[in-house]
Automatic annotation (TrEMBL):
Residues 9-517 form the Hydantoinase B/oxoprolinase domain. This is Hydantoinase B/oxoprolinase family protein. The lineage of its organism: Bacteria, Pseudomonadati, Pseudomonadota, Alphaproteobacteria, Acetobacterales. InterPro entries: Hydantoinase_B, Oxoprolinase-like. It comes from the Bacteria. Pfam families: Hydantoinase_B. Signal peptide: none annotated.
Amino acid sequence: MDAAPHSVDPITVEVIGSALATIVEEMGKAIIRAAYSTNIKERQDCSTALFDATGRIIAQAELIPIHLGSLLGITDYVFRHHDLSTVRPGDVFIGNDAHTGGGTHLNDIVFLEPIFHGGVLVAWVTNLAHHSDFVDRGHAHIFQEGLRIPPVRLYREGVLQQDVMDLVLLNCQVPRERINDFRAQMAANRLGVQRFQALCDKYGPEVVRIAASKVLDYAERKTRAGISTIPDGVYEFRHDFDSNLVDQVLDLRVRVEVRGEEIFFDFPEAPPQVRAGINMVLTALQATVYFAVKVLVDPDTPANAGFHRPIHVTAPLGSVLNATAPAAVYSRTDIAQRLVDMIFAALSRTIPERVAAASTGGTLLTTSGQHPRTGRFYVYNEMCGGGMGARFAQDGLDGVQVNTTNTANLPIEALETEHPVMVERYELVRDSGGAGRFRGGMCMRRQIRVLDHVATVSAGGTNNVVPPFGLDGGLPGMTGRVELSEGAAPLNRRAGILQPGQSIGMLGAAGGGYGDPRLRDRALVRRDLREDRISAEAAREIYGLEDV
């Protein structure tokens, strides 16, 4: 184009905005299709995003909400610690560290690459994948959790820095998976670079830049309009948090203040960070809050920097919600899930139609050992879904990931084909969902038997002591638990050993109910009874169904 326009018409803005969203979604599909490990190709534990030349996020794929913390963090770190004048086409930064590299936990490894057009830096493309590695380690502090990678160049002008790659792979327990998953991440970034450059070829980089800025402004206006529908005021909620990584139950509090078109989140008196992997760094907390706000004000709002502008998040430095080095952070989603429930509960009395009762925090199972058929070390990792909390006028979903996580359950066929284990039970648990006028989602039981080898296991999560709460008279959901076969040694915290033929069962917590159970539609109670979702005893004693 001969001259840069001072403005871009709304239709072009909409077309370019849709193109940006399509680029990150296509990148996500590319990682999933090209990945080697089951955790990425089957469970889809990855995320993608685009940033503009100044470091503002302009598009994020609808994959895993908590990953936003790492995507924001590494970009900010590179902008603050690297001389951008030295960045060249084909440079790729790799990073994962929660305390010096902007990550949120070490298994989430981020690739960040600049996009050049006509010799000028016009944007950045980035993706993240959770690598099932660094197992059988402690979680007292981050030095026990795996290799810490501050953002460094893995590629320089398109040339792999083999010494950096060798350093990373030497510290991985399943290097064959890592190198192939890294290739999938590189392919996704290269696809994103090509698609963005093609967009600039078509419209010109200045038009794309202006359109992207307008998309940010649109997201901000939409967010402010959504916040303004919440009555001004201060809304608070407190709740106990338990995890089998720590001995004590933590007292968590949230304070939400709505002032016109802006919303403020504070977490007063947050407990000090602990010597266990449940701590969150600030970017993880921000990603958690952003998810909750998006649900509450307008789920269709574009996930970009404009959406973030009216949202303010603070937490005490050195607390479990704003941890400092060397805090362990591996299971930071345990608290993240609970915070979303608490934000919903705080606002339930003013916007009850938009919130849900408490949901499961998720239950993590990791099995590793020497694969008897291949002779190689293997890692099977899965966050088992539980029950979603019931909503104002709808039952909660059964056996799903909720809130800040969004991974799929690993199909039995893929699990048993690639790992030396057998799934013995995979079922929804009767009477697990919290009773209510609308019933909480049911949790599921997934029982795995170890075959022909000694396996190291890590199993557990949250809501083992404190059940997911109900709202407006709804009853809590069932607590989560780990079930071991007869003769298996008890777990120490989450860690243990299974001998050949022994099994472990995982039950995530179920969702809380919404409203008085005796007000539930009789036809729905009979349907639940017919489908074996509830027992005859529950139908009679909790729901008040007389003709059982």
